[in-house]
Design brief:
Homodimer. Its main location: cytoplasm. GO terms for molecular function: carbohydrate derivative binding; glutamine-fructose-6-phosphate transaminase (isomerizing) activity. Keywords: Aminotransferase, Cytoplasm, Glutamine amidotransferase, Repeat, Transferase. The structure is a single chain. The relative contact order is 0.14. The chain has 14 helices and ten strands. The strands form two sheets. It has a five-stranded parallel sheet with strand order 2-1-3-4-5, sandwiched between helices. The protein is an alpha/beta fold and 363 residues long. Bound molecules: 5-amino-5-deoxy-1-O-phosphono-D-mannitol. The site of 5-amino-5-deoxy-1-O-phosphono-D-mannitol has 15 residues, from helix 3.
Length: 363
């Protein structure tokens, strides 16, 4: 049941404030304590993390790497499951291995999990389907409580994965003494505000649709981000390719002048994801290099960022301001909406894109 929406994807995008609230309710007590299932994880016993997944779930891991390293001071190795499983990397027994999968049945992710079994301290999984193979074979399974996701393009599962990962980061940081209780309280209160800022982001639907109409004419699109917004640039590009069939690539904005800027001309839209954080000026200077080559910039930022840098851009999309660390969750919304409206403008099959399956149970 599409609940009045034209596509499951649109419905699932709109559900995000509610399902993120669900996830928060399951992991956060009223007094702000983070409770993980099954006795939790002893973060003082581990000294590194290995995170493995495929597709969008991999990009959730990639985003969480920035958080775990910065906030919990834990080094993280992150890889796509199909590479990890055959690389057979050496792993220490002080490792926490985390496998992220919406379906819990992705063949490569399951194989990677089995490779780690017996070698690491703990195998944890973050899944949407609690009765799945990946959940069953983990020491600890953390459900994301996103509800059934029908659209092949993962949307609400991604933001719920990020929410649960962020809670894990805070738990790890606290257990390892990497943050003070005041810092923890700030993070928790920002998290509690997330459903309402996501609602505000959803209100930008019409602006995003207008930008998507322009984007639908493009043959190639670049996505740029820096720091924790870099994985999200990949997510924006993946979503766009998947459902609109437009060729899209993501680059760390600092990599631009090491090759990809050669592609830029007045036919190439460049989507820049840049909240007004400490890296903003760096990203903006990369964006200006794009504009100097007549690249058409779609800038996604907050009011402050747009006031400073939107002159001369092709389109801009305004996000509410949010605690720095949570920007990747919030900016997932315009990334999803941009792909969605572009696909609708092109008339492609949004919920069942060609050649793709919702659950990839063969390698
Ligand atoms: O069920 P999983 O989370 O393990 O699936 C992983 C990928 O196949 C999945 O995220 C895929 O990339 C999506 N179609 C992306 O929108």
């Amino acid at each position: 049941d599409k609940g009045g929406y034209k596509h499951f994807m649109a419905k699932e995008i709109a559900e995000q404030p509610g399902v993120i609230q669900n996830a928060l309710n399951h992991y956060l007590t009223e007094d702000g304590e983070i409770v993980l299932p099954d006795g939790g994880i002893d973060f003082t016993k581990i000294d590194r993390l290995t995170m493995v997944a495929c597709g969008t779930a991999y990009l959730a891991c990639f985003t969480a790497k920035y958080w775990f390293e910065r906030i919990a001071r834990l080094p993280v190795e992150v890889d796509v499951a199909s590479e990890f499983r055959y690389r057979e990397p050496p792993i220490s027994n002080r490792t926490l291995a985390i496998f992220v999968s919406q379906s819990g049945e992705t063949a490569d992710t399951l194989a990677a999990l089995r490779y780690c079994s017996g070698k690491v301290d703990t195998i944890a999984s973050i899944v949407n389907v609690s009765e799945s193979s990946i959940a069953r074979e983990s020491d600890l399974a953390l459900p994301i409580y996103a509800g059934v996701e029908v659209g092949v393009a993962s949307t609400k599962a991604f933001t719920c994965q990020l929410t649960v990962l962020f809670l894990m980061v805070l738990k790890a940081a606290r257990d390892r003494g990497a943050i003070t209780s005041a810092e923890l309280a700030d993070h928790i209160s920002a998290l509690r505000g997330l459903p309402s800022v996501i609602n505000m982001a959803l209100e930008q639907n019409d602006t995003v649709r207008a930008a998507a109409r322009k984007l639908s004419q493009a043959r190639d699109v670049l996505f740029l981000g820096r720091g924790q917004m870099y994985p999200l640039a990949h997510e924006g590009a993946l979503k766009l390719k998947e459902i609109s069939y437009i060729h899209a690539e993501a680059y760390a904005s600092g990599e631009l002048k090491h090759g990809p800027i050669a592609l830029v001309d007045d036919t190439v839209p460049v989507v820049v994801m840049a909240p007004r954080d400490s890296l903003f000026e760096k990203t903006v200077s990369n964006m200006q290099e794009v504009m100097a080559r007549k690249g058409k910039v779609i800038l996604i930022s907050d009011a402050k960022g747009l006031a400073e840098a939107s002159e001369g851009v092709w389109a801009s999309i305004q996000m509410p301001s949010v605690a720095d660390a949570l920007a990747p969750i919030l900016y997932a919304i315009p990334a999803q909406l941009l792909a969605y409206h572009t696909a609708v403008a092109k008339g492609t099959d949004v919920d069942q894109p060609r050649n793709l399956a919702k659950s990839v149970t063969v390698e």
